Every structure is written in C-alpha cells, then in structure tokens.
Amino acid sequence: xxxxxxxxxxxxxxxxxxxxxxxxxANDAWPLVTLFFALSAGLSVxxxxxxxxEDNTTQLIILGAGLAWLVPALVVYLVKALxxxxxxxxxxxxxxxxxxxxxxxxxxxDSFAAGGPIPFFAAGLLWIAAPVFSLLALRR
Length: 140
Description:
Elements: H1 7-52, H2 56-67, H3 70-80, H4 86-112, H5 118-138
Helix pairs in contact: 1-2, 1-3, 1-4, 1-5, 4-5
C-alpha cells in the first residue's frame, strides 16, 4: 500500500491548500473592516461633540456613547475573525495607534483651546483612517 502522492496529486493538494488559505484570509479581513468603521464612527462622533458642545458633562456623555461602540466592534471582530495573521495584527496595531493619537490629540487640543477646529480635524482624520486601513486589511 503506497501512500506517497504522485507529483500531480501533490500539486493539487498545494493548490487546494493555497486556495483555502486565501479564502480564510479574505474572510478574516471583513470583521477587521467592521471594527475599523465602527470605532472610527463612534470616536469621531465623540470628537465632534467635544468640538460643538461647551458643557463638559454633556461632552463626556456623548464621548462615552461613542466609546461604547468599542464593545460590540470588538465582540464582532473576536467572534468572527477566523485566524490571527501577522498582517492583520500589524494593521490593527498601527490603526489603533493612529486612532489613539488622533483621539487624544483632539481631546487635548480642545482642552487647551476650547472652540477651535482641531477636534473636527481629528474626527476627519478618523474618518480618513478607517477606509485607508480597511483597504490595507482587505489587500492580501
């Protein structure tokens, strides 16, 4: 009983494995894209509220509502992501750094100079960062 595959069978197995791996990567990218857009939307709404509203309590309430999007976005990503690849992890870490810098920068700038346009620029940065990093996540 010979269990060694022929060269043709080996090539078929390799092609099948590569196709399966490519499909898994593509399916893994969509939860990451959902995470990017949900968090960008929630945080940018919070930043716009910080820029528009003068009352600190109301700012914090709307900011907290924006941050509340973090929980369902992470649940969708962690439940639906089939595998953790190095590429998607790197894209996620870089995106989180960009979001953190933009968000904290917008909040700090508003605390130093209330009523300025910087929270709106930071919200715009978040809206630009989401599709850019989503395209990076989908490009595999």
